[in-house]
Specification:
mainly alpha
């Protein structure tokens, strides 16, 4: 098992999304390097919670 997969929790995508929204609100839309690291971690967790079926916008 990779270190990344062991740190991903079993929270729902909605729970993780709420935390992402809170992070952006707290930061005022300007992420510090520490916030950016947290955001990236949350994105990985959110993708895992959605089954990895994330599509990018065209």
């Amino acid at each position: 098992m990779s270190p990344m997969s062991s740190s991903v929790s079993a929270r729902s995508a909605a729970e993780v999304n709420a935390e992402i929204r809170d992070l952006w609100q707290r930061s005022g839309g300007c992420l510090t390097p520490q916030d950016e690291a947290e955001y990236q971690r949350l994105l990985v967790e959110w993708a895992a919670a959605t089954g990895g079926s994330v599509r990018t916008a065209a």
